From TrEMBL:
Protein's name according to its UniProt entry: NnrU family protein
Membrane topology designation: Multi-pass membrane protein
Main location: membrane
Record has Transmembrane as a keyword: yes
Organism encoding this protein: Aquariibacter lacus
UniProt-annotated location(s): Membrane
Entry keyword set: Membrane, Transmembrane, Transmembrane helix
Length: 194
């Protein structure tokens, strides 16, 4: 559990710099330069992610059950991750209507992913992992919207072709992950009975 907690602190800590310490972050970027900042940010993020994966895998070997969710919650989680995948793709494709309308679709996708997995899983490791990401996503979205309002950010309206591409790729990625990769990589079949 220690590795999981340490990984979450590093990964979410680095990703919380804009939420908790924007002036300090900007001062550090000025002092180090954008390239050095991005390199340090990327290395810390990668280290945090590796520790999260290792810590969560170890915690799953000896799970501490806090509650037993109804079996149907696995299906609810799988369905909540469908828009999460679309939102993740929306954050990467310029000109789509979801990105234009929502502003920060990746953070909203993380929120849906975390919430869905909280509903479907009941161990301490699940609570730490998915709960931490969900809380972070709520705070990150709020902070991003406040920055948008403060800067007077105006987004262009989305176009039809990038929006259709976003939805199609998101649905395809979700289907691939939910029906094949989730069981291969994580060992859990989201739509299994029981």
């Amino acid at each position: 559990m220690t590795l999981l907690i340490l990984g979450l602190l590093i990964f979410l800590g680095v990703h919380s710099a804009r939420i908790l310490a924007e002036p300090a972050r900007l001062a550090l970027i000025d002092r180090l330069g954008p390239g050095a900042w991005k390199l340090g940010y990327s290395l810390a993020s990668a280290l945090g992610l590796v520790l999260i994966v290792m810590g969560y895998a170890a915690a799953r070997e000896q799970p501490l059950l806090l509650w037993t969710p109804p079996a149907a919650m696995r299906h609810v989680a799988a369905l909540l991750t469908l828009p999460a995948f679309v939102l993740l793709v929306a954050s990467q494709i310029p000109g789509n209507a979801l990105r234009a309308r929502l502003g920060h679709p990746m953070v909203l996708g993380v929120k849906l992913w975390g919430l869905g997995h909280l509903l479907a899983n009941g161990t301490l490791a699940d609570l730490l992992l998915f709960g931490s990401f969900t809380v972070w996503a709520v705070l990150a979205f709020r902070a991003a919207r406040q920055r948008d309002r403060a800067s007077g950010a105006v987004r262009a309206t989305g176009r039809m072709l990038p929006t259709l591409l976003t939805v199609g790729l998101g649905l395809g990625a979700w289907a691939l992950f939910a029906l094949k990769l989730h069981v291969e990589w994580i060992g859990v079949a989201p739509f299994a009975r029981g």
